[in-house]
Amino acid sequence: MPPPLTIRRAGGTVWCTLDRPPLNLLEPTLIRTLRDSFETLATDHTVRLAAVVGNGRAFTAGMDVRILRELDASRGRELITALHDAIAAVHQAPFPVIAAVNGPCLGAGFELALACDLRVAAASATFGLPEVRVGVPSVIQAALLPPMIGPGRAAEMLLTGAPVTAAQALQWGLVNRVVPDEGLTAAVEELAAPILASGPEAIRLQKELIIRWRETDLPTAVRYGINAFTAACATGEPREGMTAYLEKRRANFGG
Q1: DSSP one-letter string for 153-200
Q2: What CA–CA distance (Å, rounded) separates 35 from 87?
Q3: Average confidence (pLDDT) over 74-97
Q4: Residue 237: CA atoms inside 13 Å, Cβ hemisphere, count?
Q5: Which domains, ranges and CATH numbers included, belong to the chain?
Q6: pLDDT of residue 175
Q7: In this structure, are residues 196 and 117 in contact, taking their beta carbons and an 8 Å threshold?
Q8: What's the rounded Cα separation, in Å, for the pair 63 and 214?
Q9: CA atoms of 13 and 61, how far apart (whole Å)
């Protein structure tokens, strides 16, 4: 069979396509490939940004229920741990990750999208956590939902399993942009452009801070910021960026 995840480089951007159409259901091989791919990309300093997309009529409709149905407690722990490791590799990537969401984005697939830094949705996209309807709770990156959209809205999604439309997701702050279906790739490229034009080391430091801020208390987060600013000053990027600003030209961070 062809690989369940395809990787395509376009300059500093890596396009990671979930490639099990039509629904890109998550199963052990795809989960393992996702983890391995992002762990490898994390070691490549030339990667500036990644975009996760789905091939077919869905971003991913979540876990394959046929696999979930056969789990006992031991195999359930093994599967959810593997899924956690894969989604954590995306969440902790040292570069920004954009989710390009078309069609259904459900369950573990929604948690994958939540693990990304930015989300662009096609108008046809839907988001939901229907796990309780088949007898299991939503876990892992679902923990990011309450601080993102508020405890009341999060509880409604988690307890009812009801999906929300792309328009609702935009209103609630779940996604950054909603665009016509045919404009999804162009919208990702538009969102990526200012990131790619910024200082590569500054972006990596900022990404690291975003993760650290989410996981720590305020005083510690501030100290992390001081350290990151100091680290940035040890590179040549601030001098080039500020010189370019004063000279009214585009910065050349590539030297």
Answers
A1: HHHHHHHH---EEHHHHHHHTS-SEEE-GGGHHHHHHHHHHHHHHS-H
A2: 7
A3: 97
A4: 18
A5: 5-196 (3.90.226.10), 199-246 (1.10.12.10)
A6: 98
A7: no
A8: 26
A9: 25
Residue 93 near residue 71 (C-beta atoms within 8 A): no
| H-run or E-run covering 98 | strand 97-101
Spot the catalytic one: 39, 111, 189, 237: 111
Supply the DSSP symbol for 135: T
Does the annotation mark 240 as catalytic?
Answer: no
Q: How does pLDDT run across 183-236, given as a tens digit for each residue?
A: 999 999 999 999 999 999 999 999 999 999 998 999 999 999 999 999 999 999
Q: Do residues 121 and 175 touch, judged by C-beta distance below 8 A?
A: yes
14 phi and psi angles, rounded to 5 deg: -115, 120
Tokens standing for residue 116: 């990304």
- Do 11 and 49 meet the contact criterion of CB atoms below 8 Å apart? no
Strands 164-165 and 126-128 come out as antiparallel
Amino acid 254: pLDDT: 79
For the question of residue 131 being annotated catalytic, the response is: yes
Active-site annotation holder among 27, 70, 78, 131: 131
pTM listed for this prediction: 0.95
In degrees, to the nearest 5, what angle opens at C-alpha 186 toward C-alphas 185 and 188?
A: 65
Residue showing tokens 């789905």: 54
Q: How far apart are CA 94 and CA 206, in angstroms?
A: 9
